[in-house]
Specification:
By secondary structure, this protein is mostly beta strands. The protein has no helices and five strands. It has strands at 21-34, 37-43, 49-55, 67-77, 80-90. It has a five-stranded mixed barrel. Strand 2 (37-43) and strand 3 (49-55) form a beta hairpin. The termini are far apart. The model has no long low-confidence stretch (mean pLDDT 81).
Length: 91
């Protein structure tokens, strides 16, 4: 069975452990599409930029400047934290 978990939006990934579920909100500063993955740089409220990877099952219609909310898990890649998105919602 599945449980719904309510997460508060975070402001800094560096304080979060790897593989922990997170939710963040911000504006897309940069968007790059490669194969079936989107690579986003998301600006938060404190001008903190977070790398987010979205593996697309279906086409997403996102563009730079969109305000979004992302739910996913943290991972460390090349010594830097990033979010692997499981859900992206335009706000």
């Amino acid at each position: 069975y599945a449980n719904n978990i309510e997460l508060d939006a975070i402001t800094n990934l560096e304080e979060i452990k790897s593989s922990e579920a997170v939710k963040l909100q911000g504006k897309i500063a940069q968007l790059t599409a490669k194969d079936k993955a989107l690579f986003l740089k998301v600006e938060g409220e404190k001008t903190v930029t977070t790398d987010v990877i979205v593996f697309e099952d279906e086409e997403l219609f996102l563009q730079e400047g969109d305000s979004i909310e992302i739910t996913g898990t943290t991972e460390e890649y090349n010594g830097k934290k990033e979010v692997i998105a499981s859900k992206v919602v335009k706000r």
